[in-house]
Amino acid sequence: MKLLTRIPGKEYFISLFVIGAALFITFSIIIYRHYDDASKFNQWVLVDYEMARQARLLESNLLNMETSVRGYLLTGDQGFLEPYNQAAPMVNKQLDYFRQLSLQEGYPASTFDIWRTRIDSFHRLLATQISDGPDYNHPQLVHAIKEQKAQMDVLRRLIETTIVYRVQNLNLQLSAVRAKANEFLWIMLAGTALAITAMFLVTLAIVGLIARGQRARQEIERTEERFRAVMSGINDGIYDYHPLEQRVEYSDALRNMVGYNEEEFPNNLEAPNRYIHPDDLKAVWEMLDRYARHEIPHYACTFRILHKDGSWRWILSRGVGFWNQQGVMTRMIGIHSDITEHKKREEELEALNSELETYTYIASHDLRSPLVNLKGFARELEISLDKVKPIIAKFEPSVSEFDRQALVQTFERDIPEALGFIIKSVARMDSLTTAVLDLSRIGKREYQRVFVDVNVLVKKCLDALAYEITQKNIEVDIQNLPPIYSDPLALEQVFSNLLDNAVKYMQPGRPGKITIFATRTSADITYTIEDNGRGIDNADFSKIFEIFRRARNTENVRGLGMGMAFVRATVRKLSGTIWCSSTVGQGTTFFVRLPSSLLKEQST
Question: Is 240 within the bounds of a domain?
Answer without folding.
Answer: yes
